[in-house]
What we know:
heterodimer, A: mainly alpha, 11 helices, about 0% strand, globular, disordered N terminus, B: about 260 residues, mainly alpha
Amino acid sequence: MKVRKQIYFMRRLPDSIRLDYLPGYIFLILLIGLWEAASLAQLVDTRYLPGPGRIGKAIVETIDRGRFLSPVTQTIAAMIPGLALGTFLGICGGVIMGRMPAVRTAFTIPIEMLRPLPSIVLIPLALLVIGDGWPMEVLLIALPTMWIVWFATLKGVLGISKTLIDNAKLFHIGPLQRTMFLVIPAASPMMISGIIIATGLSLIVAVTVEIVTGNRGLGAAIIKSQTAFQIPTMYAYVILSAILGYVMNWLVKSGGRRLLRWKQFDNRLGTR
Amino acid sequence: MKTAQSTRYSLRLFNAQVTLALASAICCLVLWHLVAVAVHSVLFPGPPRVFAALSEILRNGDLVEALSLTLRRTLVGYIMAAVFGIPFGILIGSHRFAYRLTWPGIDFVRVLPIPALLPVLILLLGVGELMYSILIVIGAIFPILIHTAEGVRATNQTLSDVSRILHVDRVRLWVSVLLPNALPEVFSGLKISLPISMLIALLAEMLAGSDGLGHLIIIYQRSFEIPQMYAAAFIIALCGLTINLAFDGAENRLLGWHYR
């Protein structure tokens, strides 16, 4: 029990923060040093590609004045409800399609037609139909999340051993309870890996929407500082959005692992 | 891996189910039409107007031109991502030190939202084919790289032990044991990356470009040609569907030995 706790504590750190990767950190620091040296020696055009020193200063400035807070919170405020809505709809859809073969057959063609449509393409349409605003961004994030979780869940549900379901039926466990306590837990590893993939995509969709509309969030902050030609600030926001992506990814992954404590987590690169 | 095949969800339909599937597809079309008639809004055209617009933009050549540009950009970036990603993945997967050296950097860059990089690349390179390619490479390389590395790393221990006992030389070991074993993983990386490549091409065209399918959709929106916009979206969905099916087919053909 103690060992398990220890391992669990170690897993709570992001994947790439480990002593193993010391050579990697040294390598990164060397690269950044090289870049700084190149920009100090004016080997690159520092108007367009300022050195890490200037970018660092810009990051500190944005954080210091608290200016980073509103773009970051606006992006998060769209991402989290979008992810939640998409996950909920995706799990419902996946479970229904997985457990009801007739529904699966009937909806295959329409769904396969709609699914490959990237949510980015719907931005112009959404601007006309819903209008720019928080609900539009949430819906556009929810859509790809829904499809990814939907098909991950479906795969998980179809992979459940028939013996398990038959056993549950034999014990007169009703369909609702079967779904809640057998189907959903059994499919949850697939669902969670779907949600992890969707998190990365949701940030892409959020930033794209924000760049197109230019009103809220990190995307708008990047575009605004570009048009105002505050290049170090633009780089600062790009780095902040990468940090946001990193933190979101880590939170969803460690949350998922927490939920899946009962299951041996697979030993993939980067998920270890 | 056997379950992967039996649970794989595909468009393969069986005789009795074909009727149901087709009937429901027709029902959906009819429903779409009825809703469009009921809503009676410019923003929600019914199937007749959308298909009329589709045939119109197909005939006047706008669509074909934009589509070929977008597809070319997608493929160039995608092939570049594969050309760089696979060898690099093999390196990372087979050498522990290379993995430890590069992973922190990779782990940070791969979560970077691609559209955020777009202004940076425009600043550095201007809007051009090079910018599209580099943006797509940055977005599409990581699934390929990570899957390849994982495939190489997770080679069956028994296989490599047996090869060592049989004194198989290094080249032979790679060519006939390690690489074929990693192939399914490489393939799934390639499969994940292709739609991402197309997404990024569309996204860059929408945000910065002056041509291509992404830009065409923006133009339709600005000139309020709503049925045309739906038609272009329909074509994009059709492309995505074709890509998916083609990949499933190729996978079954090339890697059938693996799943059997």
